[in-house]
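Researcher: We're teaching a course module on how sequence relates to structure. For the next exercise, students receive a sequence and then see the predicted structure as tokens, so they can try to spot secondary structure elements on their own. Here is the exercise chain.
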Amino acid sequence: MSGKNVMITCAVTGSGMTPSMSPYLPVTAEQMITQSVDAAREGACILHFHARNPQDGRPTKEVGVWQDFLPAIRSQCDAVINMSCSMGNTAEDRASAAMVLQPEIATVIVGSMNYGMFKKAQAQGVTEFQHDWERELFGPSSYERVTNNTFKKIDRLIDIFIEQNIMMEFECYDVGHLYILEYHMKNKMGRMKRPLIVQFLTGILGGSPSDIDHLLHLKRTTERLFGMETEIFTHGTGPDNMRAAAYGALMGTNVRIGQEDNVTERPGRLFTSNAEQVRKIRRILDEFDIGIATPEEARRRLGLPTPARQAA
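Model: And here is the predicted structure for the students to work with:
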């Protein structure tokens, strides 16, 4: 994708960062709406979402929670809507909210691994937690936790999104996941839309680190397996998130930043919003004369239709 403008995805909130890590992490519907719209105004052409219980910030896949914020965001900005579908024991569970809300893009994780949630708390320097669910998430049980993404589950999730005509973003934590994706691509015999969207999710203890050597290897392997037209997004979790995004842009990939992946601007200083993160990566890209893509350009490159309210 050399020479193209960079698409900035802002991951507004997630399931790894928690309220104890930052008071600026969006949790309520109002916070989600405000921070999402502001991030889009700053230049994020894609908004990636998880949902949280507004009372304690616990990650949830409840459709009602999604409905409290997602329609309002759609009505107030033009950014492409990308929904996480990572919660649930079955493919149907994971896709349930997306099937109701019909985002333009939904995520599919293409590999299992030891996730090491405890490292996220360590990286953010947080040892005291407000809520019991946070203590459970990062406590001793996190040493036993494995992300469960079987071939059967991946296959079924892909079929659901093909049936729903929802474009997929494939989250790859390590190079082996790219070969898993290649297997599924061959198995679907051209049924998946092009261009393929591949996102490198690095910096997890059980996956690939976020240093330049690993990112370059992931990029070259992706292009060899799936072609140069593949739309690649680079993001690293934890405090190296902004550095990984800068590496990605300099390598010619798109980037992802946001409060889902990291809440720390630098040691001792928190990001105060998603918009602040978008502004920072834009400053970095501008120093290298790298342009950013608008929502209209993103939809054109990804083969997504123009929303009805924009086309009218």
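Model: If you want an answer key for the exercise: The two ends are 31 Å apart (CA to CA). Residues 8-112+147-305 form a domain with the TIM Barrel fold (CATH 3.20.20.70).
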